[in-house]
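Subject: for your reference before the review

Hello V.,

The reviewers asked for a structural picture of the protein, and I figured it would be easier to keep everything in one thread rather than splitting it across files. Below is the amino acid sequence we used in the manuscript, unchanged from the supplementary table.
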Amino acid sequence: MELWKNVRGYKNLYLVSNRGRAKSTNPRWKNHKILKQVKNQQGYYRVGLWKDGKQKSYSVHLLVLEAFHGPRPYGREACHNDGTRTNNRSSNLRWDTHKNNKADMKKHGTYIQGTRSPGAKLNEKQVIEIFKNPNEEGSAVLSKRYGVSTETIRSIWKGKYWGWLTQSIKNNLEGE
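And here is what came back from the structure prediction:
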């Protein structure tokens, strides 16, 4: 049975269902219009919601989670139990830690890192070059050379970005 609940912040305007669908409750439509879901670059469904003449785009899984599992607890993120980003049924969603979400993604084979990431501007060879010479050239010089921000360069040096690769390099250097 499909259950419908109000979308937080859009009471009496939009509803989401436990099956991962969204609909408008605008009285102009006789049978409440099911909203078209559009897949974003990361593979998640999004819908556009209107309020006070302005439209905002929302991830469907977050709307379903908030409606059926409550507001996002501090330090938690949305997790798909089966690893399928398009399965937004409330029974497939949960709030969990980043660590557990990452472990799930690795288990399901959906974890994207490095050059497979849609927003990646660097390849592994470039990251290795950046990581190996933090003192020879400043972050400003390297950021211009590679077309990324100085913050990206510093994050690579700290292991915050591409940490799985930089940790491997660090281990190899220490072993020499």
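For the response letter, the relevant points are probably these. The CA atoms of residues 13 and 51 lie 8 Å apart. Helices lie at 60-69, 98-108, 124-132, 139-146, 150-158, 163-175.

Happy to draft the paragraph if you're swamped.

O.
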